[in-house]
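Protocol step 4 of 6: structure prediction from sequence.
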Amino acid sequence: MNDSRIPFEQHLLQLKDHEQEVFWIDGKAFIIMPATLEDIERINKGYFCMD
């Protein structure tokens, strides 16, 4: 049984700072990387997961 809450959660949590992954969804590319506090303040939207 997989207890991940989002697809690829365990893989994404293993990314180091400044590492990036490219996800393709319906022909569109998305770059995924760990956010810094500055990124969060600049963008000011998103989802937070709390354990």
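Step 5 (inspection) to follow. The two ends are 19 Å apart (CA to CA).
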